[in-house]
Amino acid sequence: MIVRPMQSWFRMLFVWNGSVLQSIIPQLIFMGVLSSLAVLTHGRVFGEKIPLSAAPFTLFGLTLAIFLVFRNNASYARFTEGRLLWGNMLVSSRTLMSQVLSYLPESVDEMGRAHVANTLIASIYALKHQLRETDATEDLVRLLGEQRAKELAHKVYKPIAILNDMRSYLAAPNGVPLKSDMTRWMLDTQINDLERSVGGCERIASTPIPFSYSVLLHRTVYAYCMLLPFGLVDSTEIFTPLVCVFIAYTLIALEAIANEVAEPFSLAPNALALDVLTRTIERSILEICGREIPAEITPVRPYQFT
Amino acid sequence: MIVRPMQSWFRMLFVWNGSVLQSIIPQLIFMGVLSSLAVLTHGRVFGEKIPLSAAPFTLFGLTLAIFLVFRNNASYARFTEGRLLWGNMLVSSRTLMSQVLSYLPESVDEMGRAHVANTLIASIYALKHQLRETDATEDLVRLLGEQRAKELAHKVYKPIAILNDMRSYLAAPNGVPLKSDMTRWMLDTQINDLERSVGGCERIASTPIPFSYSVLLHRTVYAYCMLLPFGLVDSTEIFTPLVCVFIAYTLIALEAIANEVAEPFSLAPNALALDVLTRTIERSILEICGREIPAEITPVRPYQFT
Amino acid sequence: MIVRPMQSWFRMLFVWNGSVLQSIIPQLIFMGVLSSLAVLTHGRVFGEKIPLSAAPFTLFGLTLAIFLVFRNNASYARFTEGRLLWGNMLVSSRTLMSQVLSYLPESVDEMGRAHVANTLIASIYALKHQLRETDATEDLVRLLGEQRAKELAHKVYKPIAILNDMRSYLAAPNGVPLKSDMTRWMLDTQINDLERSVGGCERIASTPIPFSYSVLLHRTVYAYCMLLPFGLVDSTEIFTPLVCVFIAYTLIALEAIANEVAEPFSLAPNALALDVLTRTIERSILEICGREIPAEITPVRPYQFT
Amino acid sequence: MIVRPMQSWFRMLFVWNGSVLQSIIPQLIFMGVLSSLAVLTHGRVFGEKIPLSAAPFTLFGLTLAIFLVFRNNASYARFTEGRLLWGNMLVSSRTLMSQVLSYLPESVDEMGRAHVANTLIASIYALKHQLRETDATEDLVRLLGEQRAKELAHKVYKPIAILNDMRSYLAAPNGVPLKSDMTRWMLDTQINDLERSVGGCERIASTPIPFSYSVLLHRTVYAYCMLLPFGLVDSTEIFTPLVCVFIAYTLIALEAIANEVAEPFSLAPNALALDVLTRTIERSILEICGREIPAEITPVRPYQFT
Amino acid sequence: MIVRPMQSWFRMLFVWNGSVLQSIIPQLIFMGVLSSLAVLTHGRVFGEKIPLSAAPFTLFGLTLAIFLVFRNNASYARFTEGRLLWGNMLVSSRTLMSQVLSYLPESVDEMGRAHVANTLIASIYALKHQLRETDATEDLVRLLGEQRAKELAHKVYKPIAILNDMRSYLAAPNGVPLKSDMTRWMLDTQINDLERSVGGCERIASTPIPFSYSVLLHRTVYAYCMLLPFGLVDSTEIFTPLVCVFIAYTLIALEAIANEVAEPFSLAPNALALDVLTRTIERSILEICGREIPAEITPVRPYQFT
Q: Nearest chain B Cα to A195, which residue?
């Protein structure tokens, strides 16, 4: 995620870091070359004038707009839902920690409370690693000890396994003796909420926007851009490359951003900063426990957090 | 559902598997022939010039855009709601299983726990078969035994009947003796959630988007496409077939995709992969129980899951 | 509601049953006559040429599109909300029935259980009759007996009165003695959900989309359609009636469909099939009870359910 | 709120009551005069021809459409949310009343039950008066007696104070002795829901759509309308006033309706009929209690309810 | 937030306070100079005519509209969600206060109740200061005493720490002895709701709309505005500056408003009035307690609340 203070309106026009421009340069160069050719040949291909007026572009533009709007809205909805789910994890884990501190009987000592905190944090890290398909071992060893991390290594659904542990620990007679059924239910509700957020993230990660939409939009955008110079060359003449490259920039950039936000758990510049989010949850849980809190995450590149 | 890694922008233009192109070829050939005829006759029918300028197409385009956007949004909303409901089933069944393992008294042995897991998985399979109108017998025999499968054969609402069994089993004095009312209520809440998801899926399956919308959109799309060559032939000349087929492709393809995602439980390439989803739920429940988990579903065709 | 299997793309163009076409024929004939007159007079009225070019239609089109999109979305939102509420009633009543069977003490005999089932079904039928402003007596006599039906005859809010009965029956010491407060609360939650759905349906039925929107849209659609022939006659000549009638068809049909789905509890072809829905709920509740289930509803006209 | 049966398509074109036309006549007359002047002077101001073609209007139209759509959607969302909140109040208060009748111990007599009903109804009336900034005294005296009404007179948040009374009454040992904690919690949940709806209404009433949006839309609409005659006069000639006044009517009327529905608790014709809604809640609560119910509200003007 | 009574349609055109105009004057002057230059040179740059017709602007306009609509909707969604969360805080804290007054045992004296009220109010103020990154010390000292304020000074998540205190106070045996588990759970639910709202606000504050969207929109708006004079100068001649500045005003103003509402917790004129909201919550809680209530907040500038 790019976090960058607002610039003045003028400097904002020339921002480089955080613009999606860097990732679509090849396509824009291609468009520049193509439209320059159109100018040089006056819109002729093999000597034949391509008879495109503005009319077909208005018709094209119709479907293009429909596809772009739909694709962008569907992508952004995935982004905001992903963010909401991680926000819910922060809320549920904080509440669970606070409830454990207030309602668990006195007989549960410091170590028991630290165990709950670590298990909670481990489930969050496990989810991050599952969503990014990275190796969770290091974080799990740090938080749960080597033995438990080893047992978890072969689990497919690690965060769920860890939350399952938490439930057993809080319910089992050999673990923490709860004062009452009601207290158990309060804690179970928060674990349930965490499981719900985990399931929501899995859903987003495993179900992309139907592939056919992407293909259809992609083809329409590029067909539109490639025909554009031949449609404009008669009216905009020498300015054709400038106009075409800029219009292509807006269309291709929007498609590129939509692709990034549609996979909110990836490492792309416009995806969610899961590293920051996990650290925030860790910091907040530890602060509630009165333990020392780790430093905030620093950006991997100027203004860019992952 | 098509699950396919992102291609480079260039190769994406020529993707075949996963594009909806294959299912609308007849219509596109028809459009190609029609627009070629328009070029050959210079837009004349029986010697009479059809006097269509771009103006009516802009007006047509207005309603066409409204219908396409509405139809597509309404269809996609059904798709995402269907996905959400199956995601909720994963969450609720996992939570129920985990609660059963933690909160049921010691006296409930391995077999009792396996019975709960199997009943849970059976309800999911039964829902899949109900939504796809396929025969559930095989899966029910595998999970519940021949006798129970036979009893269920004549039930109209099989998943509900199975969840009803689950509730009786967890509540009945001859079944599992619960420690307390509170525990019963915790488990009942998850069964309730499962019933809610089942009801939601039935609702989507039994209530299509009002048929009149489909007819109206369909007619507008085809009327627009068929008149298009006669409107464009004067300005785009020999390029008319290319332009018309491409515009027709975008419109007809969008209608086709919208039709597929509007019935998210069908076997169409852009519908939900219910086989994968049921297997995922099965795997996750069995992993929580510490039992062996079956392999993941493989695609029926390259990149295509059902 | 129209339930009709998908046709081939070609036959779909000529569908009669389920198209809204049948209800707007007078307006279309009027449009045909008007545009024919425009052709005959070359766009003159009393010898004066009406100087309408395409320009004003683009401007008109703007507001027309805004009104149509808004009206259609608002109407469809009412339709889907109505459907959701009836779906919730199915879920809540099934769950309540299942809970009654599992959790009520043994001392409640067959007759008590049948009484609960009948009361539940009666509340659903009463809601249907209230929403459609039809006479509920017949169904209430069948389900609750003549005496109770008579008492209910003068009630304004019949479904609520029946659900109120249900609550008293399950709570009252002379009725069903509940094992515990917790069980009472579980059952009360489902009754509460039913009351919530009833209230939601009443809200939709009693609050139309603000009337001024309808008037404004209606006037804009007809003004647009009536001026259209005079704007197009110079460019489309003899084809004017065809083009105008088709454009008028798309606009007036959309308004007509939107009017129908905006009142989802009416008997219109695109409204909800409340008869089917009530029967489904009845069937599902009776199946849970292990009682004989009535047949499904048959369509009143080809493909049309009410 | 206007409640009016659907007219035939022809009579609907000339509806007067319920159309927003009556409130925007001065602006339309102004537009008529302005466009007539443009026709008389052939688009000249002080002898100078104003060179406006259709092109700028298409560009203008773009932003105008964006503003109108946004403004209208945001306004209508406030209207539907306001309606939803009042619907929730109906549901919660009915449920609370029904629960009080079923679950309160026998020792609470007729008078106690009537007291609960009256307090409930008083909170609804108090909310109506707070939202409309009218004097609640009369209704409070009628329902709660003169003394209590006097105590409430100086309260800023009257509905909350009344619901607070209700909570104390149901919880306090000197008031109604509840059988159990569970019952108290059931009743408290409904009071909580009522407080939630009250808070939601206060939120809508106290937070308008950001003022800058209104200013921006207003200026764009009027600038567009005032320039329109000069842009159209060359093509539509003598018809300019007719076309301009009609386009202005659609734009200004939409803004006017949007302004009305954006404040759903006002007395405007397109706002919610709070008088009807409060009376409906009163009637429904009293019917549950078996008490005599007051008559329905009659319209203040033909078809118009407040 | 601007709160201003509606003006007559004519005076509304010249509103200054509350219009976003004041903050975009430099850009508009720049546009005025640029378009005047275009008129003086007849659209020539270094003697070369810039060949821009209306056609490219229609194509540009397409993407511009998509970006503006998306950006504005996404921003406004953040505004309304922020408002909703603060509304929920009002509801939850009022309910919690009311429950504490009704359900806490008699043994909890005036001072205990005042302590709960003050802690509640302090958490709201702490959230406001956290969101606005201002110093909370003064308010915390006033409400919680100097010692507690000092302890909180080093906390990163102050509102959560204060709510955590509240939970301990209501649960701890040395604090308030609760009558029962059920009562504890009722109070805990409200604290949980407050934590949920706090987490929601943190989410909005820490996750901006993806930066790339802002850059893309910004560039498109300014490129469009800067090219506009050259596209219009041939048709609108001397009127070009007027038309261009007005169109630029609508576009740039919309971007500016969207930027403001996208950060609903800032001090911008179109952000939320957090000072008013915190004071309202304080007033309402104190009124429930029967304590003296502070005066309402007065605007910092005419019509402007922060």
A: B91
Which amino acid is it at E262? A
From chain B, the residues in CB contact with C186 under 8 A are 185, 188
Cβ-defined contact of B195 to C102 (cutoff 8 Å): no
Q: Does C19 contact B69 at a Cβ distance shorter than 8 Å?
A: no
How many CB atoms lie under 10 A from the CB of residue E36? 16
Q: How many CB pairs under 8 A join B and C?
A: 163
Determine the distance in angstroms separating the CA of A265 from the nearest CA of chain E, rounded to an integer: 14
Alpha-helical (H) ranges within chain B are 25-40, 54-103, 110-132, 137-144, 146-152, 158-171, 181-206, 211-236, 240-262, 274-289
- CB contacts under 8 A, C 210-249 vs B, are 228, 232, 235-239, 243, 246-247
One-letter amino acid for residue C224 of the chain: Y
Q: Tens of pLDDT along A153-187?
A: 999 999 999 999 999 888 765 555 565 778 888 89
* Nearest residue in C to D69, CA atom: C66
What's residue A197's pLDDT? 97
Distance between CA atoms of D111 and D176, rounded to whole angstroms? 12
Selected residues 96-135 of chain E with any CB under 8 Å from a CB in chain D: 98-99, 101-103
Of residues E54, E83, E250, nearest to D207 (C-beta): E83
C112-149 per-position pLDDT tens digit: 889 999 999 999 999 999 999 999 999 999 999 999 99
Say if CB C201 and CB C227 are below 8 A apart. no
**Residue bearing tokens 């679509």:** A24
Cβ E71 vs Cβ E216: under 8 Å: no
Return the DSSP state at B176.
-
D298 contacts: CB under 8 Å, gap ≥ 6: none
Q: How far apart are CA C109 and CA A77, in angstroms?
A: 51
CA distance D21 to D93: 38
* Residue D266 clears pLDDT 70, i.e. is over it: yes
Using the Cβ of E40 and the Cβ atoms of chain D, whether some distance falls under 8 Å is answered with no
The answer for residues whose C-beta is within 8 angstroms of residue A248's C-beta and 6 or more apart is A27, A28, A31, A225, A228
Give the confidence band of E106 by pLDDT, cuts at 50, 70, 90: low
Token pair in block for residue D126: 């108090």
The CB-side HSE value for B273 (13 A sphere, CA atoms) comes to 24
- Which chains are within 8 Å of E by 3+ CB pairs? A, D
Task: Check residues D21 and A195 and name the one with the higher pLDDT.
Answer: A195
Contact B216 C254 (CB under 8 A): yes
Residue B264: pLDDT band (50, 70, 90) is very high
Indicate the residue of C51, C66, C70 with minimum beta-carbon distance to D236: C51
Q: What is the ipTM of this complex?
A: 0.94
Domain map (residue ranges) of chain E: 20-289
Distance in angstroms (rounded) separating the CA atoms of residues E49 and E52: 9
pLDDT for residue A263: 94
Query: Across the interface, do B228 and A59 touch by the CB < 8 Å criterion?
Result: yes
